[in-house]
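Can anyone check this?
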Amino acid sequence: MSTYEDASLIYYPSGYKAGKAYSLKPTDGTGDLTFTRASTATRVNESGLIESVATGVPRIDFTLGCGKLLLEPQRSNLIFPSATGSTQTVTTTAQSYTLSFYGTGTVVRSGTSTGTLVGTGANDRVFVTFTATAGSLTLTITGSVTNWQLESGSYPTSYIPTTTTAVTRVKDETSTTIIPTMTGVSEFTWFFDNTDMDVLEAVVVYMQLNLSGGPLRYYATNGGRFRGSTYFGDVPAKGKVAVKCDGTTLSMFKNGVKSASTLASALGTFVNFSGFNQGGETFSGGMQSMILFPTALSDDEIIALTTI
């Protein structure tokens, strides 16, 4: 198998501009990912520093050393100012929140939730997810707490700077135009690599292939799932996953193992790729790479492709 020669689409985080993330193949631009985000956002750059990224510009994030296209849902940092922590009280509702910060200090929660989050280093980000009740949550600071964030949700997302009020980062969205070599095919192999994911980034990945018979959806969390029209097996939050359709059967592979198969006769033919909403979240996480083949690769080829 020659991955480059046989693939219709190869995406790896590299070139980008406002509104566009360039795919390695095809080279004529028909497989490039269109990108939108109606606000500024931050990323960790190649030097390990947090920097601001302009509205509508994709983020290649290097939190774990290897660049990934960072795609996150809309979130708000509810505490301010965020650069240096100071004791404050915020209003919460009965839902999950995630608190995070850098530094060696501590943040003690009282009121609608209780507990203590202890920092481990000036350049280390620590976090805790908790369920609050409705009312007032007091966050008491001691020591060095920097770039801290309180957001609703069950995992931490990238740092959202605040000064005098809460700030919202709008969701990232990406999709492809129609890829000529994939148009109308009923056989395909779809490979996705999120090996370099980490819980300190978004550990939720939502994506879908749009087919003439309806969407084929994939989402991964810690203990997450892959879905076609019905539940189709657990997938890892970290790893390599591939989906093969030979026109009649849909098979899933994860980390070098064929894990499940189901009938795929109602899927129809390939249309395009896009993010999707599931439970209020959008395609999110760190895309290490994505490859689309216009044919059903053999099981042995896919096992080799997905083995870590």
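Reply from J.R.: I decoded it. The chain has two domains: 3-34+172-306, 75-169.
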